[in-house]
Amino acid sequence: MRVSIVLSGLLGFGRLVSSAYTNASVAFTYNRTSFLLHGESYQMIGGQMDPHRIPYQYWEKRLYAARAMGLNTIFSYIFWDQVQPSQDTWDFSGRNNIAEYFRLAQEIGLHIVLRAGPYVCGEHEWGGYPYWLSNIPGMVVRSNNAPFLNASKVYLDRLAEEIRPMLVQNGGPILMAQIENEYGSYGADHVYMEALRDLFYGAFGDDMVLYTNDGGYSEDILNGQIEGILAETDGGPQSGFLARDQYAYASSLGPQLDGEYYITWLDLWASNSTYDTDAGDTTAIESIVSDLSWTLNNGSSFSLYMFHGGTNWGFQNGADWAKALTPVITSYDYGAPLTESGGITDIYLALREMIVDYLGNETLPAVPKNETPIAIPEIALKPVVKLFDILPEPVVADYPTNMEKLGQSHGFILYRHTVTSSVSGILVPGDYPRDRVLVYVNQTRVGIIDSIYQAPAKVNLTLEAGDVLDILVENMGRVNYGPRIPDQIKGIVGNVTMGESILKGWEMYNLPLELPSASSSMSTLELASSSLSNSGPLFYAGMFDVEGEIADTFLHLANWTKGVVWVNGENLGRYWTVGPQQTLYLPGCYLKKEGNEIVVLNLEPSEEMGAVNGVVNRLWGNNPDPDAP
Ligand SMILES: *[C@@H]1O[C@H](CO)[C@@H](O)[C@H](O)[C@H]1NC(C)=O
Ligand SMILES: *[C@@H]1O[C@H](CO)[C@@H](O)[C@H](O)[C@H]1NC(C)=O
Ligand SMILES: *[C@@H]1O[C@H](CO)[C@@H](O)[C@H](O)[C@H]1NC(C)=O
Ligand SMILES: *[C@@H]1O[C@H](CO)[C@@H](O)[C@H](O)[C@H]1NC(C)=O
Ligand SMILES: *[C@@H]1O[C@H](CO)[C@@H](O)[C@H](O)[C@H]1NC(C)=O
Ligand SMILES: *[C@@H]1O[C@H](CO)[C@@H](O)[C@H](O)[C@H]1NC(C)=O
Ligand SMILES: *[C@@H]1O[C@H](CO)[C@@H](O)[C@H](O)[C@H]1NC(C)=O
Ligand SMILES: *[C@@H]1O[C@H](CO)[C@@H](O)[C@H](O)[C@H]1NC(C)=O
Ligand SMILES: *[C@@H]1O[C@H](CO)[C@@H](O)[C@H](O)[C@H]1NC(C)=O
Ligand SMILES: *[C@@H]1O[C@H](CO)[C@@H](O)[C@H](O)[C@H]1NC(C)=O
């Protein structure tokens, strides 16, 4: 491959042409020991921060905070599903205006490392893949598969068009791009990785510096590297560096970069999963500082994963899969130096001190002042409409169809069957529950089958002619990390059975819930509180004003079991009493002084629901799952 590049007359800077190494007019390259920016040695003091997880109104101050801590490089994932929501539509607006994010970074004095996947993991829905890939015949993701590479090419070409002026060779801040993400811990198909390399060169030009990033273990490096492409590792720091020297192709060796130094770890929904952070833990912070100080003094580069995690807005969260589904919580705080709401932590301050020490005389911008969140007094919420009373036109068929085939990415699908002759037994909603299945008979909840459990609850029913069976299936997040599983399809896959009977005759309702289908202008629904438990999902709505200055707040829905919250049309994400997250981040930029509208989809109304208010400090903690099998 290298030979054919040379023969075709293309210069592979940083790949093979050593005379290019010291050429100052080559914007960015590397030699065996250093990254070289305009011919000068460049050490990446990096941190991960993804535009899609931050309100765009806050990009500038988050980037400034990164620079003020001493970072010079932002590592940024791009989520394919966000920018190409359907095969024919592109969205580079709002939080997807990546070019603008990069432009702001440059203005603030930061460089960018592009992590565009196409597979990024990142605890994001399906690792960034758009749902519609599942509808393309012959599609096999993360592999040397024509339909997959074809779709990837369309994405990378369009992304390149969007951000081309931001490449360092065009005077922008983007230094280099990562191919795939830790592929070596998933597969070992070098032909696939080489095909992706060629798509990146095709989209971004042959002078783009590319690299792979794998776990710092022999197998991962052997599996994930591409000959002639810089091989970097993550985790570590030291173990990955030593392993790389031992296992990477000689032509893939270069300056050492710990591509993801884990500050803490992600958090998952479950009664026994706690919020993970090292803030306040002096010993743990000393160990982070010592690792990273070692890395810098070693002449190597790093990227903090995460510098600032932000929020999995709406339904963006992914899930892990080990023995059961473990969905990622709405917050992507990650115990990062800069909190979800932009707060400066003791981790931030300790790292800044270490970096200032290391840099010696370089002046950094001042540490931004912590903004004080506001409290919002109890918001009066009224039930306004039943989800089952505002269903869209159904798709009618003999047997169920999955979410993707119904043209939907995330949210819910309601499957309705009217019983024609008596039937009884355990309800089996397709091959396996995907993911959280609420079961109703005549709109009374009779069971919940939840795939977060290895052995989900069994719902045993006896139904008579005329009974209406409703199966509401929630996509809790497609798996971004875990062993190979056959597919990432949501809704119901296969037939619904009870005992020996296959249930025939379905109405299927698409409920993507991009926007709430209810509003505070609807009149109050009169409900006896005793009818709440086991009722169908209800929308609640209310209005509130902000007293004094507008600022961030954290919404607390005390004792509300599970659901989704929108404020002024922004989907703040899922809440769930199991925790560890007990409040939802509501940034001040989504608020106005007067007439803020809140809408809550309450999946499991109960008599226990407490006050809904805004608090100044996030609440973390776990409650028992009322729906545990
Ligand atoms: C340096 O790079 C520039 C831009 O690619 C090229 O035009 C020039 O010929 C190179 N000079 C040397 C000495 O390689
Ligand atoms: C890489 O470039 C740096 C900066 O010019 C130089 O100090 C270093 O010796 C070079 N390393 C190698 C192996 O050429
Ligand atoms: C690749 O995509 C193009 C349109 O984008 C389509 O015409 C072509 O058939 C696709 N090829 C494969 C192998 O999927
Ligand atoms: C919580 O932990 C217990 C014991 O380790 C385990 O059996 C159970 O499945 C866990 N629950 C969830 C939802 O992860
Ligand atoms: C950096 O660390 C590696 C071991 O991980 C070591 O081999 C190398 O000599 C160190 N380099 C410097 C400049 O300290
Ligand atoms: C830091 O010191 C070095 C060496 O004394 C000098 O070349 C450089 O300009 C100084 N940088 C700043 C930002 O003062
Ligand atoms: C389902 O419930 C019925 C009636 O209570 C009972 O007879 C039957 O054994 C149950 N089936 C299973 C598989 O538990
Ligand atoms: C459900 O509603 C139907 C239609 O009103 C009725 O025939 C049936 O008896 C009801 N079933 C139950 C269990 O209440
Ligand atoms: C569902 O059952 C029908 C009737 O037995 C059968 O024709 C169909 O193939 C089944 N669908 C699946 C996905 O198994
Ligand atoms: C939540 O419910 C429990 C159990 O009913 C009750 O003891 C507690 O006071 C409630 N908390 C709030 C904040 O409403």
UniProtKB/TrEMBL annotation:
One of its GO terms (biological process) is carbohydrate metabolic process. Its EC number is 3.2.1.23. Residues 537-596 form the Beta-galactosidase galactose-binding domain. Keywords: Glycosidase, Hydrolase, Signal. It catalyses: Hydrolysis of terminal non-reducing beta-D-galactose residues in beta-D-galactosides. Pfam families: BetaGal_ABD_1, BetaGal_gal-bd, Glyco_hydro_35. GO terms for molecular function: beta-galactosidase activity. Residues 1-19 form the signal peptide. InterPro entries: B-gal_1-like (IPR026283), BetaGal1-like_ABD1 (IPR048912), BetaGal_gal-bd (IPR048913), Galactose-bd-like_sf (IPR008979), GH (IPR017853), Gly_Hdrlase_35_cat (IPR031330), Glyco_hydro_35_CS (IPR019801), Glycoside_Hdrlase_35 (IPR001944). Residues 34-355 form the Glycoside hydrolase 35 catalytic domain. The keyword Signal applies. The active site is at residues 182, 260. It comes from the Eukaryota. Residues 400-511 form the Beta-galactosidase 1-like first all-beta domain. Belongs to the glycosyl hydrolase 35 family. This is Beta-galactosidase.
